[in-house]
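User: C-alpha cells for this one?
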Amino acid sequence: MKTQMVTGSMRRSAAILAIAIAVVGCTAAKQTQKIVILPTSTPTEMPTAEPTPTPMPSESPSALPSGSPSASLTASPTPPPAGGGVESCTGTADMRDLWKEAANNLSFDVYCAVLPSSWWVQNTEWKGKPLTYVTISYKNAKGWLISVGEGNFCSGAPLCWTSISDLGAASFGDRAGQLKLRAAGQYAVYVDAGTTQGYQIIGQGMSQSDLVAWAAGMVKVARS
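Assistant:
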C-alpha cells in the first residue's frame, strides 16, 4: 500500500511537473512569439525636401568707366580755359594754386603742362631750400606717362639726365632745349642739363611728335 501511495504521489508530482512545464512552455512560446512578431524592417524614411537654391544675380558688377582716374589719386581735372596762362594748365584749381605758390617762392621759373582732357595730374610737389625744385607727373587713360622736373630735382641722381641718343633741338615752353631718346619708347627734352636750375620733361608711351608738341606747350606760371 505504501508503495502504491508513493507511486501515486510520484505520478501526481509528475503530472504537476508536466503541467508546469506545459505552462512554462506556453509562456515561453508566447514570449518567443512576441519577439517574432516585432517588426524587423526599419520604417520607411520620409523624403527630405531639398532646399531650393537661391538664384545668383545675373548682373555683373558695373565696370569702372574707362579713362576716369581713381578718386584716391586726385580730383578730376578741370577743363582748361582757352587763352593760356596757368589757368590753362592741366590739373585742379588747388594744383594751380600750388604752382603759383611755388613760382612766388622759388628763384627759377615754374612751368606746367597743357594736355588733352584725358590727362590728369598724378602727383606734384615743390620744395624751397636747400633743394629747390618742382616735380609734376601726369597720366592718361591709355597709361601714358609724363614727368616734369624743374630746378634742383636731380640732386643725388646721376642717371637723371641720361640718354641713348640725341634727336636734335626742341623747346620746353619758351626755353630752347635738346630732344633725347632715353630708352625704347621714351623721349625727353632737356634744358640746361646737369645744372641746379635745369628743366626736364620725359614722355613714355606717346610718339616723339606728341612729346615735342606738349613740351613746347609748357606754360610759365606768372609771379604775383
